[in-house]
Design a protein that fits this description.
This protein is of the alpha+beta class. It has six helices and 20 strands. It has two domains: 199 residues, Rossmann fold; 65 residues, Immunoglobulin-like, CATH 2.60.40.
Length: 308
Amino acid sequence: MLPHAGTDSQIWRDVVALGADLKALAEVRGSTGTASVAVVWDWNARWALELPSQPSEQVRYLDQVRSWYEPLWRAGVAVDFVRPDADLSPYRLVLAPSLYLVDEAGAANLTSFAETGGTLAVGFHSGAVDENCHVRLGGYPGAFREALGVRTDELFPLLPGESVGLSGGGTATLWSERVSLAGAEAVASYTSGPLTGVPAVTRHTHGTGTTWYVATQPDPAALAALLDRIRTEAGVDPVRVTPEGVEAALRRSEDADYLFLIDHSGRGAEVPVAPDATELLTGKPLPGGSVIVPPGEAVVVREPRGGR
């Protein structure tokens, strides 16, 4: 950790400061995250989606995951990333933005989550092939067809620069499908292009839970509004309401909540906290019921359980 410039350097001073911060945060060790949303991430699905044999070379796995994650991050919603076969019991909402490849166990785990009361949202071109890249016959979205209450018989990738209108407002790019309803309801449909009138976003009751299918790529504002509706209906709230540009993350122990606040705006902000809270990095109590996050900096607040 010692830079070539020695101890008379900013790097060394930063390393020393980091060590002091970690010591101040020692009591956070053993606490757990509080995310009630999970995004499915699978490396095999990524490699398969980006094979040259795909209908569109414009569809990139990481782009899809980012496009779904960013609106949640901006809304202050805590998110975990999980495998398709992970334990989903801690979550209210699970998102699978583009799970082209998924094995039977992973697909069953995700659909069972919805069947037993969770909310599952699936993005286009998902469930199409098994772990050996063998196409599931009978129509798309393959492994999720029954749980989503839809069936697609033909894919209509959009050309670069091409867009179609959506009935709920906004436009969509990149991808479209000829979806027919098999129990689901249409939430939004195409208003232009060869699939005018065809469902683009659907909602379905599956068991005691809810499933959503997003068969296209809505523009950022439309996708943010859709995800806001989905997570609100699923009962998912932000970690803490904060000014724009201030990220909040929450960890929990038996006797305290640990609120991490990071200013990305460069402006700093004041954030409400419990009146008996303490800022751990400085050790200062916060009797005024708020904490100042300096521009570009971070604070960590200890709130005794029941303090808010």
